[in-house]
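Possible regression after last week's pipeline update?

I re-ran a chain I had predicted before the update to compare outputs. Posting the input and the new output here so someone can diff against the archived version. Not blocking, just want to make sure nothing changed silently.
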Amino acid sequence: MTKPQIWIAAFLTLFIVLFMLQKLTEEKDVPNKPNMVLKSEPEKEVTPEGLISSLGCVTCHGGDLSGTSNGPSLKNIKQYWSRDNLINYLRNPQANMNGDRFTEYKKRFPNFLMPSFGNVDVKKLGKIADYLLK
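New output (post-update):
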């Protein structure tokens, strides 16, 4: 085989391999029928405890939320918060840290800041607030 024939054979082989790879990875379109209902998995119901754990609250506030050296207790917070105020605090803690209690927290926990959960769905924050305020 001459060099031009080798190059042509290599090019054709590469072309065939890429063509087959494209066919194997091709996405199939779902036909669009007027009365067709696409099934989707329903969103799983998440418990408040699961949300608290998944958002990392237990890291600073402890597994039973009674506080650690990194964060205060979340027990009996009903005396300080209404549901709406607690949700607003969770969404933007730095803007809602008013009062002597927070001054004391800043002294007790100087190297720790409450993270903002403004990107979490308000309904999920409402579940957390309801759980903490019960």
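Follow-up from reviewer: compared with the archived run. The two ends are 84 Å apart (CA to CA). Marking as no regression found.
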